[in-house]
Amino acid sequence: VPHLPPQFQKRLVTVQSKLHDRIRVWDVPTRLAHWAVVVLFGLCWWTAEADHMEWHCLAGSCLLGVVLFRLGWGFVGSDTARFFHFVHSPSVVVAYARKVFVTDPMATSNVGHNPMGGWSVLAMLGLLLMQASLGLITVDVDAIASGPLAKWVSFDTGRLAAHWHANTFYALLGLIGFHLAAISFYGLVRRQNLLPSMFHGFTVARPPPVALYFAPLWRALVLAVLTAVVVTMLANAW
Amino acid sequence: MKKIIEHLLVAMMAALILAAATSSAATDPKQIAKAREESFKTLGKTVKDLTYEVEKSSPDWSAIINDTKAIERLATELPDWFPVGSGLAAGVKTSTLDAVWSKAQEFKQDSDAFTAEAQKMAKVAGTTDNVSSRTQVKILAGTCRTCHRSFRSAW
To answer: A54, A149, A192, B104: least surrounded by Cβ within 10 Å?
Structure first.
């Protein structure tokens, strides 16, 4: 644009270049599942603290559904949602960590979760699955506000599940803290704000990667219906 | 005669040792807290069994009546599970909050409410009426919850 002053010309070129390198990275189901976990985890925490146990069971069942959906989407979803795309061998993880923390803080990896983040996602999903599953058989100390499958286990087993339900919650808080610290590291050290990508689904990649595969939405709908059926059956104790 | 006196002395010594051991167990805060925990486990198990039994379409009323009698008995015993000096201040691992003793009047009110609802539960179960039994179980468990909120640590 010839009539713009030189400093704006330079900025315009940068913006144009960023737009040019802007690629779609997260599909709608992955983003929805991510934010649903955030909301539902918060709801589960609050309902437990406020002693609204019926709502807690409902929110926990929904959370279980979202986690099961995300696990399924990790096999049949888009490239960046699939486990094979972001779960790497320990040697790759160590090499990437060494690069980022020792030699090159700006080191890049493939688009989507980096090798360290991939294992963090697995740990998060594993802990969430464990937390929600334990909740199903947890027996409250009053033996009244218990999980939907609690009648199938003894009082002692249910109380043990309650104990681990509490411990897993603290482990999840630690992992969430680690996740937020990693996002802050990317923002502060690498000047890369990861948060907007999880809202609009786009990122800037230089050089642009080979074309990513994005799964059709109908597949996500089928998976969502299947997980909803499974969770409804569990929540109603068959 | 000497032998009889010897036997008597041995018996008296044994009785004294036994009494000392029993008394020590009864006053040891750790033992008291452990016994309290076990009693609450029994109570919890019985409430759980009762809760699921009344939910059935054809409940076993003899099992329900047995459970309600057990709960009624445990409810009357409950205040004795908390002798002074058996809390956290005595260095024992327990979920019991010190409020049990510092707010003794409120604790008594809550345990009395539990006993009253347990007695009502036993009466309602005697009628073998599903609907009122289910309602009463919830009221009964509600009194457990009210007490736990004030007098039991959440974890």
So the answer is: A54
